[in-house]
Amino acid sequence: MNELIGALPILLHAFVTTLELTFLAALTSLVVGIIAAAMRVSPVPPLRWAVSVYVRFVRNTPLTIVFFITVFGLPQVGINFSFFAFALLALTLYTGTFVAETLRAGIQAIPIGQIEAARATGLTFIQVLRYVVLPQALRSVVPPLASVFIALFKNTSIASAFGVAEAIGTMTNMVNVHSTIVLWVMGATAIIYIAFALLFGRAFAWLERKALIVR
Amino acid sequence: MSKLNKLVTAIGVAIAFAAVSSAGAAEFPAGSKMAELAKAGKIKVGVQTQYPLIGMKTLSGYEGFDVDIARLLAAKLGIKNENIEFVPVTTPTREPFLEQQKVDMVIAAYSITPNREKVIDFAGPYLPSPSGVMVKKGNPLGIKSMDDLIGKKLCGPSGSNQESFISAHFPEVRKTMVLFDSSAKCAQAVINGQADASTTEVAILAALAKQNEGQLQVLGINYDMSLYGIGLTKTEDKTFCKWINKTLVELEKDGSWAKAYNETIGTVVPGGAPKPPEVGGSCPG
Amino acid sequence: MTGADSHLFDAPGPRAVRRTIIGSGVAAVFAVALIVYVLMELSAKGQLSAAKWSPFLKYDLIKFLLHGLAYTAGAAVVSLGLALVLGIALGVGRLTRTAIIRMPCVAIVELGRGLPVLLSMLFLFLAFPLAFHIDLPAFWTVVLALVLYNGAVIAEIVRAGVLTLPKGQREAAFAIGLTGTQTMRLVLLPQALRIMLPSLISQLVVLIKDSALGFIVGYQELTAQAQSAALLFNNPLQTYVVVGVVYILVNSVLSEASTYLGERQKRTLSQKVVTAGDAVTIESR
CA-CA distance, C116 to A25, in Å (whole number)? Predict the structure, then answer.
């Protein structure tokens, strides 16, 4: 037990990195996802194709491989960042596709009448998206978007295989040393993960209530 | 050529077989783990999958020094190579595999430590395995000792012996260390200039340097002279552990140990086969 | 482009078409230039050499990777079926008014969503034999962990889908005398699943890829095989590109198939609604 208490501060410290990576990647992938979703429904065919290719390629590839090609492929063509920045990039590229697809589902769920009414008032495509479509789409996809971001929170663990000292990597180090408390170290890690996921879940549930539109 | 002839041959083979197998079983005391394994004719061994020359998954099976030791021990139990089931193990699953008796032994670059001995038994040790440091060819940063690595990006595998040793003995070096899930990735990071140096078992460093001919260089720095042991389920009865130790000594004497070493680690690490460590582990004497 | 998307804009006029063509032309030139630059850089670094790519023509390696693909597909198919059942049950359960049903569903969803799949695999691996005295094979460890996580996510997708539906749907269903369960099963759920089809497909794709986490308990699927192969042939970048393409192909086929099925279901569904409407009219006469 004392061994576990001694190990906890190191574990908690690693969670700070996990959270940093999660929040930064959530922000950037939300931006990437919204832009990609807008391009996907835009009147310009090549924009739609570009996004379609991006989503198909990146979403369908395991995150480990996205990471590998980012971290070890980009330096081959002369692009080199820190491991943290690479991890942020890989997570953003990957999560962006899920945000885009989730938003697309939301856009498709919007009654056509809404869009027709908006266009009838003379709004341009961008304006229709910005004032009518995206606000509603974002609201209707709050619960699945919460799942996407909670998945991102857990996906940051892949960064441990690529030079970022986050929670799961730190846990593995501890398990290697503290053979007698393997289950405890893993249990503590699991509880912290679930606690944060619950917290995010609550935050999104609050957002969902605030955003709820009764039809 | 008659039917009778064939029959006679068949009976002869059957008798010979029975003689061999009964002889095999008779060697071991009834109720011992050895007798149990010899009778079953198969064994499950936990191994590493991505440790070149030590425990490596190949297209057709497994290879490396650990794997050879497993085969040599199995042969002494009368178990054929094809009846050895190699099970991939990872840092968090090695001890549980043994505690739950999902495998009969773990031979997986498994350093003997007091902490581990609290939950499992170790036979052996069977191999001294120092850790080393590898840099870009030409050693551009002029690294000569562990202290030169302070403030440098030293790359190592997470959950490894090296990580725990450096944490305990070189905390200043540990501060700027970057961890990956495999030594191969560390080698790649050093080649790309993303990390300054890489550390893991000397044998693995040498294998990776050979793979990436002319790009990497293994330095003469050796630390953590840890000894690999054979992990066993913790029991009161140390018969199996003692039998493995006795057999390891036999393998050393008849030259099989040195042969296995020369065919694996010896192909890249200069200096020939070292003196095998004194066996003891959890069942000394 | 189907559904609401096409209602977002008019067919572009001649000026817009001209602008699009010019813009696309410029973008295409940039894209080609970028590709050429990347290929030149890769070639200069020796990443396009025959030695790095030719192993993929070897029968042994192809067989090795296909073996991994079979493991990936096996775990994914079994998990998908179970996860869909669990997800719909949990999603509907979360929407019921009875707290005794709702609360456990909420708890399972939160647990499944919050626990990293890697950890749930480890826990199943460690705790299952202790709790039930059954040795859970690696395959089922992987499947159960995937079902727990994906079931939870599918539950949330289903719930979001149901909540997005116009209130009138439920009211109309109640008005014609359907019970709560019937309303859910016949009216809300089919529509919700249709609306959320893109998200569901995303989840299917996640499931296929997440089986890769099974390496921690020794499940050797496609990604694990790729890692071993990359180490054997010292061509990680090439291996991951090839394996990435395999994943993209498999997932694309699956995505297209599910989209097609969804679209077809949408058509048959609307036909059924029409028929049902007719029946109601006939009866009321």
Answer: 18
